[in-house]
Structure formats: structure tokens, C-alpha cells
Amino acid sequence: MSASELASQVAAALEVDPEEFQARAAAEADRLKEEVRAGTFDNTQAIVGLELELYGVDDQTGALRRMPRELLGLIGFEKELGLHNAEMQTSPQPLNSYGLSAQVAELRANLAPAQERTGHQGIRLVSDGMWTVPPTGETARSYLSGSVEEQGVRLATNMSDAVRYHVMANAEYPAGMRLDAPHVSLSCDTVMPESLITSIQPHYQIPHAPDLPEYFSYALRIAGPLLALGVNAPFFPPDLYDDAPDPEIVADARMENRIGVFETVLNSSTDAYEDKVRFPPDFDTVEDAIDDVLEDHTIVPMDVPEGDRFDDAFAHFRHKHGSYWRWIRPVFDGASRSAANARIEFRPLPGQPTLSDAVAFQAVFGGLMEALPRVEHPIQGLDWETAKANFYAAADDGLRADMEWITVDGTHTTDTDQLYGELFEIAREGLEQRGLSTEAAHSYVRPLRERVDRRLTPARWKHDQVREAVDENVPLAEAIWGMQSRYVDRQKGTLLEGSFVDWL
């Protein structure tokens, strides 16, 4: 699509009447509630899925590479925000031994030929939390800040041509479009800085849709512990750092900068709007969850055409959901009436070193969602403010965070081994309840248990390498890029078949 065509489409989107859009979304939300009450969104069993984001790098240098659009189509991947991004999704499968095996097999079956095809163009797909090496001959600052004005519309030069991404820089809603982290500050004219980050997103479909609030409350209370296990983005590209001593930058690094990036880029720069990216509330009823999406401010109201899918009857409501950026969020959709589902989308986790690690999180999350409500675990009674504090502490300090947990006997604890010992045992029990053997359940839990036993996450692995180099007077940029090169090299041999534990 040419710049002028894209600008015209963005301008047309900005002409949509927001009040009319909201009225249509409200009417659809009412119909959605009726379908939920009628049982349309119920499932006969728990079902899981996974979204996996990657970015492209030069196979020789490790520098960021833009992904040719036609290449994405050839490998069957979807566009994400940046030209360097690619995304794949697994087919929903039952949460059982065959379903989880199918998740792993599908990821490998799609990624292996994709790596081969991109390799012909000198590009390697990387699973990571944040890229740190900008394209050859460019700085991260210029890559993220680059934009042009076309017909009065601001367009990011390194952003995919999806209209909704570009509208955010031209809408009335004042997105922050900035980075604000320890020793990092950057202001841009578009939301392009969000393209620094990549994630995995496990999904869990609720068997009985009206029970979503109960499952959701448990998901909020395990968010901190799971994020602490998964942290993988302690450093920014070096040229984004302010002028500060290298040891100070390393000492002040957060273990998971993805959380702060997403919030500062997309949340409003004024107090006139509630934060759109935030830790979500508890819900009393499934109707409350639907209303929370409906009442969320719509950045990009659009005239959404109705298609042939079942959930196109809720097309405007679903469009609102697309910018309902909570760290855990309820989802209601389905291509057909029989496929309609209510699910929880777990969004805090960054990209992981290997596919096995990604599926380990999917399995543990699914096992917890299966077991916690069934045993009526007292962690549901953890104060919401404490669950939120756990979440942000995990982003800052990973497994070294002080997080509060309530054990099965009702005891409050901050002991890391006690917290994770119980969390993994419950996840294992949940997987066994879904028909997995004890050994099979352990095989999914084991890669994450090893992280706790060693007190070593991917972020800590990265941080230790950079800290040790800086302690030896290696310049910060060289230390970060050396670490990133080792990360990509280790991943080459383990992405499809190994796990992060193999790196240790």
C-alpha cells in the first residue's frame, strides 16, 4: 500500500462518528449478554491456545531486519506493529495430553519451514522479550522515531500498513507515545516504540462462560508469580540510554521492561483518560466483564463491516476489544456458533528463549486455571491491591521480588520456595485432572521449576552477562550487544527442540 493510500484510509477512519459507533457497540453488547446467558459461549471442556510473537534479525550480524511483507505471507505468519515483527497463533486444542502435544507440534511444524524460508533471505526469526540491536547503519532512536506527514496524516515509516496502528498517532486520544524507564526517555510522534517488545499469550477457554469472573480472579492473583518466572527484557537498545554511568544503568535495570514500554507508549499523556494498559479489576459477573470492555474509551472508532462469521454480529464490540489493553483480559468470540467461546487471554509474558518454554507457561497457566477454582484455593482471597503490587514487583525484580501468597491452608507467606512449590504442585494436579500422567505433567512444569531452583530467569541470565562485562570495564553498548549475540546463538540450537535450561 502506498503512503497516500494509507493516509487516505487513516483519514477516513478518523471521520467515523464515535457516538454512533458506541451506540452500535452497546446494542451488540446486549445481544452478546443474551447469547452468554443462553449458553452459546459454553464449552464442553477446557481449551487452550497460544499466540507467539517474533522479530527478524540478520542471520550473520544479529541486527534487526525488516520482514518483507510478501515473505510473511509465504510463511503463513501475520503482521504485527513493526516491519520487523511476525506473529503466529496455534489452533485451539483441548487441555489434555494430546492437545498440549498438538500445540508443541503445530509451533514446530510452522516455525521450522518459516526459519528455512527466511534464512534464504538472510533473516532469522527470534523469540525474545525486546530487541536491542538496531538495523545496520541505523540507531534505535531513529528507527523508532521515524515518521512522515502525508496529506496531513502522521505515518510511522517502520510500521506495518495496518490502518489501526497509524490512526493512534492521529486520533483525538493523546497516547503517550514515549518511553519512560530508568535512564531511558524518548518521545515520538507515533506508537512505534511499542514495537520494541514481543510476547507470548496463552489463552484458556472457560467451560461455562458465566463462571468467567471466578477464573479471572485467580488469573489476576497468579499474574505476578508467572511474570516473575518469565521475565526476559532487562535492557533497551544501548543508544536509548541517557548519559549515566554504565554500572548505574545496569544496577537500576528492571527485569521486565516490556510492562513499562506498553504502558508509557499507549496510555494517555493526560489525566483526562483512564489508563488503557493496566492491571484489570475483579468482576462480579460475566456481564460486568462485558460492560468493562464496552465502557473502555475507543481510540479508533471505525465503521466495521459485518461478515459471515458468527461473532461479526458483535463486530463493533470486538473492535473495541482490540484496544482494551489490560494485562489479563476476557475475550468473547468465535467464527461459528459452535466455536463461540469465552476465554481468558494472559498477556504479561514476554517472548521466551524456546518453544518448549512457551508451552510450559501455557500448560502451567492452563493447569492452574483448571485446579484453583476446583479446590477453591484461598489465593482468591488475596487482596486485589496486593495482587497488583505483586505484578509490578515481578516486573521490576523477577524472582527476587517480594510477593505475597496464601497457601492452601490459609497461611500468608512471602517465601519464594513455598510460593512456587505450591503453585507448581497445583498446576501439576490440574494437568493430571485433565488426563495427563504424572510424568507428562512434570515434563511441562520442570523447565519453570528449574528456573526457581536456580533463581535464574532469562532476564537474570542476560543481566548477569552484562553486569559481569561492565564490571570488567567493557562499554555498555558492547556488553549488551555481546549478550544479545550469545542469546541468538544459543537459541539457534534450542528454539525448536530444547529449553532455556539447556543454556545453563
Q: How would you explain this protein's 3D organization?
A:
- It comes from Halomicrobium zhouii.
- GO terms for molecular function: ligase activity, forming carbon-nitrogen bonds.
- Pfam families: GCS2.
- This is Gamma-glutamyl:cysteine ligase YbdK, ATP-grasp superfamily.
- The chain has one domain: Creatine Kinase, Chain A, domain 2, CATH 3.30.590.20.
- The chain has 17 helices and 13 strands.
- The chain has helices spanning 3-13, 18-37, 69-75, 97-119, 140-145, 163-167, 212-230, 246-251, 257-266, 286-295, 315-321, 355-375, 384-397, 416-433, 438-454, 458-471, 476-494, and strands at 47-58, 85-89, 93-94, 123-126, 147-150, 153-156, 178-181, 184-187, 200-205, 328-333, 341-346, 405-406, 412-413.
- A hairpin with a 5-residue loop joins β12 (405-406) and β13 (412-413).
- The chain is 45% helix and 12% strand.
- The strands form four sheets. Strands 1, 2, 3, 4, 9, 10 and 11 form a seven-stranded antiparallel beta sheet that branches. A two-stranded antiparallel ribbon has the order 5-6.
- α16 (458-471) runs antiparallel to α17.
- By secondary structure, the protein is α+β, with helices and mostly antiparallel strands.
- The longest helix is centred in the first third of the chain and has 23 residues, at 97-119.
- It starts with a helix and ends in a 10-residue tail after the last helix.
- The model has no long low-confidence stretch (mean pLDDT 95).
